[in-house]
Amino acid sequence: MKKLLVGALVSICAVSVHAREDLLSDVSGNNPRFSEYYTVTTTPSFSAIPPKTSVDPLETIQDIFDAAAPATEIKAAVISLLHFDHHNEDYGNVGQAYNRKQHFGTWIRPSEDHTCLNTRGLVLVRDSKVPVTYNTAGCTVRSGEWDEPYTGATVTEASEIQIDHFVPLKNAYVSGAYKWGYPKRCLYANFLGNNFHLVSTDGHENMSKSDNTPQGYMPPNAAYRCQYLQQWLKVKLIWDLGLTPPEKLAVESLIRQNGCDLNMFQYSVGELQAQRQFMADNANLCH
Asked: pLDDT digits over 53-65, tens only?
């Protein structure tokens, strides 16, 4: 029996040493560690190359911006969300354990907004199909009508809605946000530059999602799954966040399993430029 146990331990150690997806632990003991990761490539291609274009399709997105390419050329350039850059670098070595309030803060009341609504309230107003009602003070949304995407249900009570950070804060932190300063992380937590970074979702379903990637959670609403995968990759691209090897494989597999139209998985250079500009314009949103 003792020999069998020793042999088993030797085998386990051998597998853990040689596996590429070598799961270690950071200082918190909870986050997975990998010796490699992926990012969505920012090298564009051209859906329709304009006449007399001076832009090399192999140039990076930053090269295009720096060259001040004509708007027609930028509009024509698209990024495939299914093309990835591979990085032979550690993933998840965050140094300091994730702490939501310390690293990302809470909902804020944007200084340029003339209401007393915080980010949660602004998202509820944005996503409601009908004019919302408020509490007596007018600073909290009470009711509206939300097409909840994860379940496909219609929700009318704001108390049943949670605002989901589409790529969860903990995942964002581990996949790259730990390198940022607090203002950028707080901006990430309160980002209103598009309608898919923060999403009005069923509270119970959002708790089921927790901080999982698509590898661990997919919405029960089958009609939304392809859009879900698309939005996951968009957020990762916009914020230059990494994907673990199993996360990348899971996304690719789920796209096939759900029969997604691959044309969905494109993002124009112009759209990305607009998102990055919004980030720059709001860099001081959190003080």
From this structure: 333 434 444 554 4
